[in-house]
Structures are given as structure tokens and as C-alpha cells.
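hey m, so remember when u said the C-alpha cells were messed up on ur end? i reran from scratch. heres the input so u can diff it against urs
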Amino acid sequence: MNDDDRRDKKKEGILNELNGSENAEESEVLDKKEENRDNVLLQKIADLEDKYRRVLADYQNLVRRTQEEKREWAKLSNKEMILKLLPILDTLMLAEKHTQDKNFVLTVQHFLSALEEEGVIRIKTIGEEFNPQTMEAVSTVEGESGKVMEEMRAGYLLYDTVLRPAQVIVGA
């Protein structure tokens, strides 16, 4: 082997070493790029999962609110009709006081129970403390202060809402 061949082999060895170190550097750079890309993708996945959970929670809240609104609407949908029936009930109850007919009394009781099934409850008044939220004082008489002495017109609640306040005479 002559000097030229040795020099060529040396050059080849040096070039191979340089190529090897360049390949190692390129490999490290590629590994870092892949690692960064993986981190970016994992972050995007986490963000999308978070958005999905929020959207799902919003949807579940919407469904719950809609169901509650439907129940409220169903409860109060008969309000106008019931308000029209209450004067008829008042007349029947007044007539009931002056009759001894058991069928008539039974009819009034049926009427009241049908209203109760629809959520209509009569407000208790006589002997109770005057409550301005459910009662309307039309007069005062001598008696125990703040107590309802007499009921002039019955009041009713539709579930927990005042349908019609009771008209009462209060002691003073």
C-alpha cells in the first residue's frame, strides 16, 4: 500500500467519523422534534377532552333545566281554568251551608277533591295568624289581635303559589 492509498483510507475514516457524528446529531434533533410533536399532540388531546367534558356538562344542564321548566309549565297550565272555576265553587259552598241535601254536600266534596288532585289547596284561615302573603283583610272586629276571626271568601294555593288570597276579617 502506498502513501496515496493510506491517505485515501484516512480521509475515508475521517469522513465516516464526521458522517457518524452528523448522523448522531441529526438523530438527536429528530428525536427532540418527535418528542415536541408528541407533547403538542398530548396537549391538544387534553384540551379536546376538557372541551368535551364542558360541552357534555352544559348539555346535561340544559336537559335538566328543560325538564324542570316542563314540570313547572304542566303544574301551572290549568291556572286560568281553575281561576274561572273558583267562583262556581264559592257559590256551591255557600249553598252547601244552607242545604241539608247529602248529595249536594257530596258533590261539593267531589269538586274539592278533584281540585286537590290538580294541586289546588285551600288556605287555612279561621283561628290562624293573619298572613298578608296568603290573606287579604277586608275588615277588623273586636277579638284576639292578629287572628283571623271570620273567612269571607276562601283562598287557594296552586302547589306553593297563591292562586287567590283568602278574604278575611281580622281581630283587633
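this time it looks ok to me. The longest helix spans residues 3-76. if urs says something different then somethings off w ur setup not the seq
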